[in-house]
């Protein structure tokens, strides 16, 4: 996923760009707002600061929305309700007030991308089809799982974890992204809770090697198969 970061503060950009890269995203950074609407080729999501040195960020938001349906997240220190309402009315898909948690930002990026019809996929993304891996069929539309033709009952959270891993086509999914997207927040025991859900998944699926641990990063599914069209 490629992010256009419109941010004039060098320190903020210097901290944010490597954090996004660790979550598998590439970035282009603009320190000014003028001309941002002409820099959208190949961009999946725009992160837009409002306090730009050359033009008001709301005008940039309107200019982008006039020419593109690319998802826009306003990331600003302006936190009053009126500011957020104005940002959304100006065409933003979401509004996040600084300072923020990077896990929450990443979750919001994926959420707006899915809502705009992106293929970055995760639970609820609307991506049709079934992911098939080593006899495990994960139906992303019907929220069902079968193993060698046998129905497997998963809890809602267990399915969301599995569906998120299945939908990224074998890529490593960082712990912070899984926690943010499945639970919607992070807390001191979040990693332990995730580990327990993964352990339960392995047991229920009867495939101890299917969910691979990538030490220090997160999880991935082993040997992902092609996604077949939904025939239902």
From TrEMBL:
Keywords tagged on the record: DNA-binding, Phosphoprotein, Transcription, Transcription regulation
Sites where 4-aspartylphosphate occurs are at 49
Q: Which residues bind DNA?
A: 128-223
Domain OmpR/PhoB-type span(s) in chain numbering: 128-223
Q: Name one Pfam family in it.
A: Response_reg
Q: What PROSITE patterns has UniProt attached to this entry?
A: OMPR_PHOB (PS51755), RESPONSE_REGULATORY (PS50110)
All residue ranges annotated as the Response regulatory domain in the record: 2-113
Q: What is this protein called?
A: Sensory transduction protein RegX3
Q: Which species is this UniProt entry from?
A: Pseudonocardia hispaniensis
């Amino acid at each position: 996923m490629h992010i256009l970061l419109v941010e004039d503060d060098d320190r903020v950009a210097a901290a944010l760009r490597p954090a996004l890269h660790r979550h598998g995203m590439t970035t282009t950074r603009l320190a000014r707002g003028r001309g941002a609407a002409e820099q959208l080729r190949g961009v999946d999501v725009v992160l837009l600061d409002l306090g730009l040195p050359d033009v008001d960020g709301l005008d940039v938001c309107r200019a982008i929305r006039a020419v593109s349906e690319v998802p826009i997240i306003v990331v600003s220190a302006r936190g009053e309700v009126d500011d957020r309402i104005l940002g959304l009315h100006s065409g933003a898909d979401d509004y996040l007030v600084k300072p923020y948690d990077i896990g929450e930002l990443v979750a919001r990026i994926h959420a707006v991308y899915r809502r705009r019809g992106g293929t970055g996929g995760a639970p609820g993304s609307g991506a049709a089809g079934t992911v098939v891996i080593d006899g495990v069929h994960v139906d992303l539309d019907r929220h069902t799982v079968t193993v060698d033709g046998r129905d497997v009952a998963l809890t809602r959270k267990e399915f969301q974890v599995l569906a998120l891993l299945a939908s990224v086509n074998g890529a490593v999914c960082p712990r912070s992204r899984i926690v943010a997207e499945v639970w919607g927040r992070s807390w001191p025991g979040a990693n332990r809770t995730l580990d327990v859900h993964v352990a339960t998944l392995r047991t229920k699926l009867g495939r101890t090697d299917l969910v691979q641990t990538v030490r220090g990063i997160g999880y991935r599914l082993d040997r992902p198969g092609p996604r077949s069209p939904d025939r239902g």
